[in-house]
Amino acid sequence: MQKSSSASSLGPGGLDLSQAFFKPIQDTAPPSPTKRHTKISVIGVGNVGMAIAQTILTQDLADELALIDAKPDKLRGEMLDLQHAAAFLPRTKIVASVDYSVTAGSDLCIVTAGARQNPGESRLNLLQRNVALFSKIIPPLAKYSPDSILLIVSNPVDVLTYVSWKLSGFPPNRIIGSGTNLDSSRFRFLIADHLDVNAQDVQAYIVGEHGDSSVALWSSISVGGVPVLSFLKSQQIAYEKETLENIHKAVTESAYEVISLKGYTSWAIGYSVANLARSLLRDQRKIHPVSVLAKGFYGIDSGDVFLSLPTQLGRGGVLGVTNIHLTDEEVQRLRESAKTIFEVQSQLGL
């Protein structure tokens, strides 16, 4: 498939008319070398990949967007569909190819390619179908964009983030999994719904595996700056632990529910990943629960494992992990979640 872009030549024989159409002013200087050209590549143009691409475009996060997929017809169709919306979007150059050279010079590479999760299928069961695929994706991305940040979205995301780290040879600060960023958003929504407040006023994290062994950090939840459990205790307001567990259960099952109803998830993960892209490329230094190399944190010492922890993100990728206080029970559950992931990835032989 020929590389296509949003630029075109209208003149006879492919003549570029842009120089004839505009007359330059005299004594011009070249653009400032400090002006940054931001390029994002999205690998995989399925439902998730296109939701991410669409959100990146509408939020004006990149000067250039490169799309990669193994299916040339679908790839070109998706590229053209986005290009045809140019009049309604911020100006972004859109290119697409089955050849990974189109990703060269990317600041951020977002990997969504992988087998689709089937209804009722756990994320960990997707592993063997996706590891082989990643061996063909990650090395060329590292070759053409050696200074980029890799953001892994494909499931099981924690193990595949580890796989990407091994295959790329990148330092761990430039390997990030989307992790529980979306789980935490679902968590905040459910808590806000219970309390009838805006979800943006709820501070709450899901950590650990993006999956069944995830851990809800109830001890650190706050609403409008008020620690929820401490407030309930000080006001002698009774609550049942089962109620808290049911909310967490609803978080872990929410993706399965969406998949059973519409066949896939897309829009929420699209917004989640665009939110991460903004923090990374615009050096926002915001805290996100994303999958990072967790060895050495909270007593996780079973080996190299990636799982979600509250992490500060910026232009350099992972800037640090928040030293958030966990209860003994939360620490134990986090270590068990790490063990679950490690036992799976240890079978890969990487």
TrEMBL record:
It catalyses: (S)-lactate + NAD(+) = pyruvate + NADH + H(+). Pathway: Fermentation; pyruvate fermentation to lactate; (S)-lactate from pyruvate: step 1/1. Keywords: NAD, Oxidoreductase. It is an enzyme of class 1 (oxidoreductase). It comes from the Eukaryota. Signal peptide: none annotated. InterPro entries: L-lactate/malate_DH, L-lactate_DH, L-lactate_DH_AS, Lactate/malate_DH_C, Lactate/malate_DH_N, Lactate_DH/Glyco_Ohase_4_C, NAD(P)-bd_dom_sf. Residues 180-341 form the Lactate/malate dehydrogenase C-terminal domain. Residues 38-177 form the Lactate/malate dehydrogenase N-terminal domain. Transmembrane segments: none annotated. The keyword Transmembrane does not apply. Its EC number is 1.1.1.27. The keyword NAD applies. Belongs to the LDH/MDH superfamily. LDH family. This is L-lactate dehydrogenase. It comes from Hibiscus sabdariffa.
